[in-house]
Specification:
95 residues; mainly alpha; Rossmann fold; two-stranded parallel ribbon
């Protein structure tokens, strides 16, 4: 996806079109909770807590965290950015 983002930025840049990618790691949403339906609420919460403890920011992204990055990309605040992928991962240095 990073390569596609860069290639599209090169191709579309002369037309004034910016291309930015957003890559999020495991994000806590109702959908991710549903996909882990085999875990009861306590086990799911424990999984999230263990996963968050491995992140420098000590939490996992939620949908609003990803949406804020997308909003930044769509705004004039990123006016001179193109061809890059912003990673929403709470500082996951292992990935």
């Amino acid at each position: 996806m990073r390569g596609l983002t860069q290639a599209l930025a090169v191709e579309l840049g002369p037309s004034g079109i910016r291309v930015l990618g957003v890559a999020a790691t495991f994000t806590v949403t109702p959908g991710t909770r549903a996909r882990m339906a085999d875990l009861d609420d306590a086990a799911f919460d424990a999984y999230v807590e263990r996963a968050a403890a491995r992140k420098p920011l000590r939490r996992l992204p939620v949908a609003d965290d990803v949406a804020r990055v997308v909003l930044f990309c769509a705004s004039d605040l990123s006016a001179l950015m193109t061809g890059t992928t912003l990673v929403v991962d709470a500082g996951d240095l292992a990935g």
